[in-house]
Amino acid sequence: MNQTPANLPEAVWKVGTILFRIADPTSPASGGVNWTEIEANQSSHLRNMFESTVTGDVGNLSFVGYNASYNTVSEDPQLDTRSPALLPRELRLVVVVLVSCVLGLIIVATVVGNVFVIVAIFMERNLRSVGNYLVLSLGVADLMVACLVMPLAAVAEVSQEWALGPALCDVWTCCDVLCCTASILHLLAIAMDRYRTVAQVDYVRQRNARQVGFMILLVWAVALAVSVAPVFGWKDPDFQHRVQVNRICLVSQDVGYQIFATCSTFYVPLILILLLYWRIYQVARRRIRHKPGSKVPQIMAKSPSSNVEISVIVAGNNHSPNSCSGGTTTQESDISRNNDGAPLRPPPAQQGGKDRRQFTTRESLESKRERKAAKTLAIITGVFVICWMPFFVNVLLMTLCTSCSSGGYAFSVFLWLGYVNSMLNPIIYTIFSPDFRNAFRKLLCGRQPPFGVKR
């Protein structure tokens, strides 16, 4: 791509301008080159300069484009190559309105969803458990993404430039990295908490507010360390030029910082989350298939008949893969007892057929539970990977292999796909809990708690 005309400062080039370079015999002093504007631009400053000439021996006709998204001629593949000026004015307006509406809906949905989670935990006594402190802190992090990060990102996306200067760019990128990193690390902390709940029998009883509070503090401390590093000087040398001239606000593109930030923010947490949820699934599958008898409470029932088969639903505060936030879960167990509590056996003539029926029923129930556990864990990990993987792969490519990275619309889509994860987290981490569903129903419908229940 050709360079900017020598007497047209890059800073004054605006979105929507495309110039053609044609021979101008009336201007021999300039080498016979004249710059003609093909599509009028909103910048009156540029309109007054488009007749300017440059020196040099050039051909009769050549095309000069520039970065229509970020207001500069550049060969940097990190920068966008969009050209909204090629679209009719009416279509450009429609695109701007549609983009604004979509981004606005994402922001509103993220705020509402996370506010619901936070309010539900504070209002519902049965949700104010130690296990839900992590979900509460996750909701705060995602709410901060919606309030501190998304609005300025939406403004920059719609206007196709960063016009707020280097200082505010520093603040915004710091908040962006802080909130998004905290959100991702909370997912890792929740995965670790669930694994210990499933793998360590005494963990739920021994877990206290101090331990969970330390995990939350550690998450925010790591996120803060990653986010403030560029503020204290870990920046690439082109940061000021990129913001002031190119009007692009990006986090530090220093290679060392990008490797440090992407690994600590995404790649290491991703590997640990996948390993932890795989182990959770293995433990849950083993327990579903081979539940020890001691784990099921011994329930006796008096009955006039000599043989009684009781289907028991055991309620408890067990954390299982299909209960994501420590709500009440159920276990089913078939117990056969006689009147004095001794285990029963059916008559020999009936035992074979009945055992086969019971075995088939149990096998079907176990398969159903395994599928549900696998589905739940697949949703949790799948949404996280789908939302953040494209962005972090692209960010690393931008730093290590500039010719390999995706710019333009792809970069914007990847960025907002990551932000959407903060909108989906309140759904994923609460929808599997009956307690959260009931709390949301009360908040939406204004239902009062049952009569006689003290709040």
UniProtKB/TrEMBL annotation:
<keyword id="KW-0472">Membrane</keyword>
<dbReference type="GO" id="GO:0007187">
    <property type="term" value="P:G protein-coupled receptor signaling pathway, coupled to cyclic nucleotide second messenger"/>
</dbReference>
<feature type="transmembrane region" description="Helical">
    <location>
        <begin position="212"/>
        <end position="235"/>
    </location>
</feature>
<dbReference type="Pfam" id="PF00001">
    <property type="entry name" value="7tm_1"/>
</dbReference>
<dbReference type="GO" id="GO:0030594">
    <property type="term" value="F:neurotransmitter receptor activity"/>
</dbReference>
<feature type="transmembrane region" description="Helical">
    <location>
        <begin position="255"/>
        <end position="278"/>
    </location>
</feature>
<dbReference type="GO" id="GO:0007198">
    <property type="term" value="P:adenylate cyclase-inhibiting serotonin receptor signaling pathway"/>
</dbReference>
<feature type="compositionally biased region" description="Polar residues">
    <location>
        <begin position="319"/>
        <end position="339"/>
    </location>
</feature>
<dbReference type="GO" id="GO:0045202">
    <property type="term" value="C:synapse"/>
</dbReference>
<dbReference type="GO" id="GO:0004715">
    <property type="term" value="F:non-membrane spanning protein tyrosine kinase activity"/>
</dbReference>
<dbReference type="GO" id="GO:0005886">
    <property type="term" value="C:plasma membrane"/>
</dbReference>
<keyword id="KW-1015">Disulfide bond</keyword>
<feature type="transmembrane region" description="Helical">
    <location>
        <begin position="409"/>
        <end position="432"/>
    </location>
</feature>
<keyword id="KW-0675">Receptor</keyword>
<dbReference type="InterPro" id="IPR017452">
    <property type="entry name" value="GPCR_Rhodpsn_7TM"/>
</dbReference>
<feature type="transmembrane region" description="Helical">
    <location>
        <begin position="162"/>
        <end position="191"/>
    </location>
</feature>
<comment type="similarity">
    <text>Belongs to the G-protein coupled receptor 1 family.</text>
</comment>
<dbReference type="GO" id="GO:0004993">
    <property type="term" value="F:G protein-coupled serotonin receptor activity"/>
</dbReference>
<feature type="transmembrane region" description="Helical">
    <location>
        <begin position="377"/>
        <end position="397"/>
    </location>
</feature>
<keyword id="KW-0807">Transducer</keyword>
<dbReference type="InterPro" id="IPR000276">
    <property type="entry name" value="GPCR_Rhodpsn"/>
</dbReference>
<feature type="compositionally biased region" description="Basic and acidic residues">
    <location>
        <begin position="353"/>
        <end position="367"/>
    </location>
</feature>
<keyword id="KW-0297">G-protein coupled receptor</keyword>
<keyword id="KW-1133">Transmembrane helix</keyword>
<feature type="transmembrane region" description="Helical">
    <location>
        <begin position="93"/>
        <end position="122"/>
    </location>
</feature>
<keyword id="KW-0808">Transferase</keyword>
<keyword id="KW-0812">Transmembrane</keyword>
<dbReference type="GO" id="GO:0030425">
    <property type="term" value="C:dendrite"/>
</dbReference>
<dbReference type="GO" id="GO:0007268">
    <property type="term" value="P:chemical synaptic transmission"/>
</dbReference>
<feature type="domain" description="G-protein coupled receptors family 1 profile">
    <location>
        <begin position="113"/>
        <end position="429"/>
    </location>
</feature>
<feature type="region of interest" description="Disordered">
    <location>
        <begin position="319"/>
        <end position="367"/>
    </location>
</feature>
<keyword id="KW-1003">Cell membrane</keyword>
<protein>
    <submittedName>
        <fullName>Serotonin receptor, putative</fullName>
        <ecNumber>2.7.10.2</ecNumber>
    </submittedName>
</protein>
<feature type="transmembrane region" description="Helical">
    <location>
        <begin position="134"/>
        <end position="156"/>
    </location>
</feature>
